[in-house]
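Write out the 3D structure for:
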Amino acid sequence: MLLVECKNIKKSYGHRLILDIENLCIYDKDRIGIVGVNGAGKTTLLKLLSQRIDPDEGWIKLYGESSYISQIEPPEKDTIQQEMASKFKVTETYRESMSGGEKTRFKLAASLSQKNAIIFADEPTSNMDIEGIQLIENSLSEFSGALVLISHDRDLLDSLCNKIIEIEGGKIKTYSGNYSEYIKQKTEEREFAQFEYEQYIKEKKRLERVIISTREKVKSMRKTPKRMGNSEARLHKMGNQKAKANLDRAIKNVETRIKHLEVKEKPPKIEKIKLDIEDVQKIYSKVIIEGNGLNKSFGEKVIFKDAQFQLENGAKVGLIGPNGCGKTTLLKMILNQESPIKIAPNVRIGYFSQELSILEENKSILENVMAESVYEESFVRILLARLLFKGDSVYKNVGVLS
């Protein structure tokens, strides 16, 4: 059964054409993963298909009811049934005080409660612990309707999807199979495209060398020797002219062959992020952050009781635990230097939250970074370029970014 149909879709932001789609249909048995580089238009496509935004051109028809799960937006329903709340280990009413993972669990529970024909999900495993990711995977596997999913979790795409839609250069291409099958097909496509391009360049250069060689022959054709009589000179000149005409004709034929070669574009190189973090100030303390006898509660809920920890200099530490157990709370306690947490001298702490709260959406990328940077703008622009924000893109407002 057809659930979504669209034709001749175009969507732009400013002067940039984000999506240009001739046609796309989604059926009730489709389990689609949407992939593409950051900023390719994945969320834009999801919002178009779910009719949350309108295209600039073309039309979209959505047959039947749908639900939408977003990593940022609030749930479509503020309350859920007790059975679903128990299954997803959340309260029956949505609260802003929930942890990021609890909010995602609630959104999924609310979406599945509606029993709609299709679910659109944008990064549903965002902020989730290992148990939560497994719960989402199992719940969406059991869902009987169609699924259109954006995720950076390759295992999730492998487990749930039977089709992959890739967005590249504003165009879409559909691949059969899960993410692993898509990678296999995409790799073969790239290798074949690279082979065709190399063969095209090789043949073009060969023909260009033929032209150069032929032109050299024309230049080297002997002039009429002075010792020849008029009759001999005339015959010699006529022979040269005939040979030159043949060579000129051969050059034109080769030039025509070059023009008729099927042009093969060089496959685009996928740029990768390059990030080097330099020390601002050397820290010599063996232990840079520690806490002993930590106690923290929210009402009757005890988060920490006589807890302790140490972060040693140079350590790279992962903080794990179920949603709502206090991971973010501990980070905020460190950030606010709550007693009895001790921080070594000269330690500067950077913090990036899952709510993106440190970013000001009405300011540009460059303004956001420069607001707290200890470096000059020239160095910041080099760093942003290594994060693939190049040229004028640093002046984009944060609010328009994916």
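The chain has three domains: 2-177, 187-260, 286-346.
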